[in-house]
Design brief:
This protein has 374 residues and is an alpha/beta fold. It has helices at 33-41, 59-91, 104-119, 138-145, 164-175, 250-258, 261-277, 285-296, 309-318, 335-343; strands spanning 18-19, 22-23, 30-31, 51-52, 96-101, 125-131, 135-136, 153-159, 186-190, 198-201, 237-238, 305-307, 321-327, 348-351, 360-364. Helix 2 crosses helix 3 (104-119), helix 2 (59-91) crosses helix 6 (250-258) and helix 2 crosses helix 7. The protein is globular, with a radius of gyration of 19 Å.
Length: 374
């Protein structure tokens, strides 16, 4: 089990993140969304055994990404500062950041940069794989436990949807407790699902790193757990898309957000104290909203209801979408959602502002395995 570092794996500098992954860059794993969806829904395959074909956005979509980054960089920076301050209060100055690849990794890099900017700390940052219904990479946990005090580890993700990964993480760490006792809490940039007390915000807004795939995440694929490729002594796998280097905006995203750190430092210091003193207890209201929407639309599998801007974007980029539910009071944060939906001929259904606590929800096609059409 050998860790991976940029630039040999991924486009992040080596000091930004240590990837606890197996390099599968030379393996052909991509399949069309329709083929993958049919295999997953029929039970013939697990979603983590293959990869979606990387969506290559056109000029109009890229313009929306850059506009969104310009509009939200300050807001993201503020949330990064707040959640990092909460983590440092919880874990102390020798905290170890462990991001859940890949959505958590850009956030982990930013949190590490905030800790250095605001406190002069050089926090270790690792990226590990967690797979729904399969758990977290146990070999990665063993690697971490051999080098760090597990009590100092804080797991990091980008945002919460309905809280499935929050629950998956807690259950997986409980199973691993006989080997090493890792705390089961999760720090996220945004917690619209209201399922973790460690967050920078509970608003559901467009985090620009959610709008793209590998080209905003260090050119690394989502993680792979395939028994034909991952042996008992291996980390979970991932690919490095070197061929997409010309389209890589990973550094653009990080630099745009970090550039706001000096301007917001005083505000973060004040707001962090207020946030820490506030009632941050999870109420899981997002999960209840998902259950309600699923019932209303006749969806019997909650995994096919993807709440929030980030999760809806993923549905449109990687899955076979059925429809998008969009709150009428949300504006520019959904511009890229509407563009992607139009490109894929997916209906966008407007719903009232009080329909759910998210800006939108994406519904995966519920009957694709039986040959249903959109």
């Amino acid at each position: 089990m050998t860790p991976l570092y940029g630039p040999r794996f991924g486009s992040y500098p080596a000091e930004d993140v240590t990837w606890l992954l197996k390099d599968l860059s030379d393996v052909r794993l991509e399949a069309p969304a329709e083929e993958r969806e049919a295999a997953v829904q029929s039970g013939r395959a697990h979603y983590a055994e293959s990869l979606p074909i990387e969506y290559q956005p056109g000029p109009a979509y890229l313009r929306l990404f850059h506009q969104a980054l310009e509009a939200s960089a300050e807001r993201v920076a503020h949330a990064v500062g707040l959640v990092t301050e909460l983590v440092l209060r919880e874990r102390g100055p020798d905290a170890v950041l462990v991001s859940l690849a890949r959505a958590g990794t850009p956030v982990g890099v930013l949190m590490r940069r905030w800790a250095r900017f605001a406190h002069g700390l050089d926090l270790p940052h690792y990226a590990v794989s967690i797979v729904r219904d399969r758990g977290i990479d146990r070999n990665a946990l063993r690697y971490l436990a051999a080098r760090h005090d597990p009590a100092r580890v804080m797991f990091v993700d980008g945002w919460t949807g309905k809280g499935a990964i929050t629950r998956e993480l807690a259950a997986a760490l409980e199973e691993h407790a006989a080997e090493a006792l890792f705390p089961g809490d999760l720090a996220v940039l945004a917690d619209p699902g209201r399922c973790t007390p460690l967050h920078g915000t509970r608003d559901d807004f467009l985090i620009p790193s959610a709008a793209l795939n590998s080209t905003v995440s260090g050119l690394v694929s989502r993680t792979v757990l395939n028994d034909d490729l991952i042996g008992p002594g291996d980390f979970h796998g991932a690919k490095f898309y070197r061929e997409l280097a010309g389209a890589d905006v990973s550094a653009v995203f990080l630099d745009a957000v970090a550039a706001w750190f000096p301007n917001i430092a005083d505000r973060v210091a004040k707001d962090a104290s207020d946030l820490h003193a506030s009632d941050r207890a999870p109420d899981w209201s997002g999960w209840e909203a998902v259950r309600r929407v699923a019932a209303e639309h006749g969806v019997d599998d909650l995994n096919k209801v993807k709440p929030g801007v980030g999760e809806t974007t993923r549905v449109l980029l990687r899955r076979v979408p059925w429809k998008v539910l969009a709150r009428t009071d949300v504006g520019d944060d959904l511009a890229h959602i509407r563009l992607l939906a139009a490109e894929r001929d997916v209906p966008v259904v407007d719903v009232p502002p009080d329909a759910f606590p998210y800006a939108c929800m994406g519904l995966v096609h519920p009957d694709f395995a039986r040959g249903a059409v959109q």
